[in-house]
Design brief:
Helix content is 34%, strand content 22%. By secondary structure, it is of the alpha+beta class. It holds the Pfam family PASTA.
């Protein structure tokens, strides 16, 4: 407990928020290239598993590019047995994946605690793994790193496969993390991954076969002191039959394992879906309690002699086991379909020992046979032929029937029709169909008309109807976030139009078409209008203009006018003295300040009462005022100022007319 606490405290990521969204919690597991944490998605308020790549991987630009590409491909996988990928990100060089959180244990825990498992239980655990791989292979995705640590078993027993595409992203770089990956998973690598690094669906089939071997025996098929020795064994040695360690395992289970793990990829099933069908056939035989099923074993394994005959090779060694076996001789390899030649390995073939025995004990010519012995031999051969024919009829024609046509039927009706033929049905994971209505059978396994054992089981794939996805709400999201949201529902980004917006910040989606919640086919395009931010507006210089004209022009441009009035000796009243700013650009609703002239400042009117008219006029004129003379009604002709308006001491603008009354 103390060690765990100290580890959490020393982990610099615990408690940190990545990409402004994921708050990192307790460490769940640590591997050769990444550490998994429990984390809180603060945006959606849910617990996720955060797989954080080890420091240094984010520095490799090529790895970063492939990491993003493979993560996006994995995110498109939607299957109940696949750990969902929600998001990927790069937080200042820290690469991470946000994935579905699956509380429970791994298949490694099951092997450690329970293996060796009974064949039926081992196949039941392998079946959902193959179901997940089938969905991936159908989508053109190869896992490349199938191992017990990547198979999760939730608390309710659901089996899920994790890390699709991640191995490809890592192994394409020169980073030392690649070596850690190969060393950590070398026990499950297909030979072609060791020799030339190439991989396809059959490479995953090989790894699945190794998983099955380990479930059945509790051991890995190849061991060594170093990873190189183990890798060498995968390339140069066949996986032995599990019954060598667990003698009770039926031959057809041995054949299934050896066919899936054939060193030549052309011998293996073409993909996980083909292997899944074979697993169901073997599982059905186990349910019947058959200790052996020659017909099923024969379908999975082609005998040595038949391989040689099919390949056209015959040098007498095949017919009579005479002479030295060729160096490019063939070995017994389980496969289905066509012949295959593999390098001769004395340890895997008893012909060398047989030849030595023949040389130490020369064959002597047989004496002439009597007619009676010939008749006995004929009867024996006839009886053997009858026995073989009867067995072939029983294990072949007698035990099998044809799969009825159940497509376009409701599952209940399909089950009834299958029951009439003595067959059972089971529901397989549903699929999408453009032609078969929702709720009806779109596919069966085996296919209609294929051979199926009497009282066997038909897998029904029920249609979910046409594959459609609703357009998510994208308004207000950043462009990258909007693209990820579309990819998560198998839609693509269409035309991107940049436009100004007075309300949406730059780089975020203003609007989109088709509109929110529209149902679209996978791969349909959604067009985005992305904000450039507010539109810049050129500020006109309106200094010296009448304030009414200046205010009208600024408001029309979208600005807010802030007016201040003041006296000015030079600018006439009502005109703009100054403007801030008076050039450059602003945005709508930004403020422009105007200073408006109130004309010159007020002056005090001089006192001219009792002065001679001539003197009064001079005083007022010198003070900047105009003079108007009016005579009193009782004018005496004295030309003395008896009154003035404005009165003495009053404030008035220069140029104001002062009326003087004379007597």
């Amino acid at each position: 407990m103390t060690d765990d606490v100290s580890t959490q405290l020393s982990d610099h990521l615990v408690g940190r928020v990545l990409d402004g969204r994921y708050r990192v919690g307790a460490r769940v597991a640590k591997g050769g290239m990444a550490t998994v944490y429990e984390a809180l998605d603060m945006r959606l308020d849910r617990i996720v598993a955060l797989k954080v790549m080890h420091l240094g991987l984010g520095d490799d630009a090529e790895f970063g590019r492939r990491f993003v590409a493979e993560a996006r491909a994995a995110a498109r996988l939607s299957h109940p047995n696949v750990v969902a990928v929600f998001d990927q990100g790069d937080d200042d060089g820290t690469l991470f994946l946000a994935m579905e959180y699956v509380p429970g244990r791994t298949l490694r825990d099951v092997i450690r605690q329970q293996a060796p498992l009974p064949p039926a239980r081992a196949l039941d655990l392998l079946a959902p793994v193959l179901s997940a791989l089938s969905a991936a292979h159908d989508a053109g995705i190869v896992h490349r790193d199938i191992k017990p640590e990547n198979v999760l078993i939730s608390n309710d027993g659901t089996v899920k496969v994790a890390d699709f595409g991640l191995a490809r992203a890592v192994t394409t770089t020169g980073n030392t993390a690649t070596q850690g990956l190969l060393m950590g998973t070398v026990s499950y690598l297909a030979p072609e991954l060791v020799t030339d690094g190439s991989a396809d669906a059959r490479s995953d089939v090989y790894s699945a076969g190794i998983l099955l071997y380990e479930l059945l025996t509790g051991n890995k098929p190849h061991t060594g002191d170093t990873p190189i020795q183990v890798a060498y064994a995968h390339v140069h040695a066949d996986v032995p039959p599990p019954s060598q360690i667990q003698p009770g395992i039926p031959p057809y289970v041995d054949a299934l394992v050896q066919r899936a793990t054939a060193r030549d990829r052309d011998i293996r099933p073409a993909d996980a879906r083909v292997l899944s069908r074979q697993v169901r056939r073997v599982r059905s035989a186990l349910e019947e309690g058959l200790p052996d099923d020659p017909d099923l074993t024969g379908d999975l394994t082609v005998p040595l002699q038949q391989i040689r005959q099919d390949s056209g090779y015959d040098d007498g060694y095949t017919r009579g086991y005479g002479g030295e076996p060729p160096r490019n001789d063939t070995i017994v390899v389980p496969f289905e379909g066509r012949p295959f030649s593999a390098p001769y390995e004395p340890a895997l073939n008893g012909a060398t020992q047989y030849r030595a025995e023949q040389q130490s004990h020369p064959v002597r010519p047989a004496p002439p046979r009597s007619k009676a012995r010939g008749l006995i031999a004929f009867i024996a051969v006839l009886a053997l032929a009858l026995g073989v024919g009867t067995a072939a009829w029983y294990y072949g024609v007698h035990r099998y029937t044809s799969t009825p046509l159940l497509v376009n039927m409701a599952p209940a009706a399909a089950t009834t029709k299958a029951g009439e033929a003595g067959l059972h049905t089971t529901l397989l994971p549903q699929g999408f169909s453009e032609t078969v209505p929702k709720g009806q059978v779109m596919e069966t396994d085996p296919a209609p008309g294929d051979r199926i054992r009497k009282n066997g089981e038909i897998g029904l794939v029920v249609s979910k109807g046409p594959e459609r996805y609703n357009v998510p709400q994208l308004a207000g999201l950043g462009l990258d976030a909007a693209k990820r949201a579309l990819e998560s529902v198998k839609l693509v980004t269409g035309k991107e139009t940049d436009t100004y917006s007075e309300t949406v910040p730059a780089g975020r989606v203003i609007t989109f078409t088709p509109k929110f919640d529209t149902s679209l086919k996978p791969g349909a395009a959604v067009n985005l209008w992305v904000s450039l931010g507010k539109r810049p507006i050129t500020v006109p210089d309106l200094t010296g203009k009448p304030v009414k004209d200046a205010t009208r022009a600024l408001r029309k441009a979208g600005f807010v006018v802030d007016r201040t009035d003041q006296y000015d000796e030079t600018v006439p009243e009502g005109k703009v003295v100054s403007q801030t700013p008076n050039n450059g650009t602003l945005f709508a609703k930004d403020k422009v300040k105007l200073v408006v002239s109130k004309g010159p400042p007020l002056r005090e009117v001089p006192n001219v009462r009792s002065k001679k008219l001539v003197d009064a006029q001079k005083v007022l004129t010198d003070a900047g005022f105009k003079v108007k003379v009016e005579k009193a009604p009782f004018n005496l002709g004295l030309d003395l100022v008896a009154g003035q308006n404005p009165g003495a001491g009053k404030k008035a603008q220069p140029g104001t007319t002062v009326i003087v009354t004379v007597v």
